[in-house]
Amino acid sequence: MSTLAFTLRDSTTMLRRNVRHSLRYPAMTISGLMVPIFFLLLFVGVFGTTLRAGLTGPSAVGGHYIDYLAPGIILMTAGAGAAATAVGICTDMNEGIIARFRTMAITRASVLTGQVIGSFIRTMISGVLVVGVAFALGFRPTATPVEWVAAAGMFAGITLALTWLAVAFGLKAKTPEGANSLSLIMIVLPFVSSAFVPTGSMPAGVRWFAQNQPFTPVINTLRGLLTGTPIGRSAVLAAAWCAGIAALGYLWARRRYDHNAAR
Predict the structure, then answer these.
(1) Are the CB atoms for 190 and 158 separated by under 8 Å?
(2) How far apart are CA 257 and CA 263, in angstroms?
(3) Which of 35-44, 89-98, 190-199 shows the lowest mean pLDDT across its residues?
């Protein structure tokens, strides 16, 4: 059997373990889903009317604030799912199961790959559920089938990137609480982006940061694909950010895994 075949077999085994663990202990999975739904309900039901009144020009998509908001909440679903993964990885490290895997005759990469694939699948399902809730609250996208596929691809790209980064966070942190703290950046950073209000309405310094951080081009691309607002160069920037974050997370996670034999 070739090295690739061994890797695929072992990764499938680790994925199966990850899925069974999620079904047995669903709290983190549910919390990863409830966070974006909570923000969706909060900003639509409490702040929606006020914030919608401030949207003008190309930002004023559709007839309701949720048409502007939903793409940002969809992205936050990826961040919330990744944060749950970081806590899960750190818990496994502290309980010693990762150290035991190191002594077994399995490919080293499969331990991390199984975690990433399992988290990716859960987050993609959560994304579908969040879109369903958005529809129930009045979200009315204008996307064609091709644009829906492109939006799903963009969501998959940012999900994969954030998941690898979350794995690195989980391996870096000493405790699950520390992993959760490191992962907060994935949930907090969208608040300083175009997720809730246009960046043009922000003060100069904050505006510069919001326009040049990684989540804004991803949100703008999703919003353009789903609601027809201008995308410009956001798609290229979003793809570049996704590739860069994924590469950083993967290399960092592999390095931490290979050099963290004490845990």
Answers:
(1) no
(2) 10
(3) 89-98
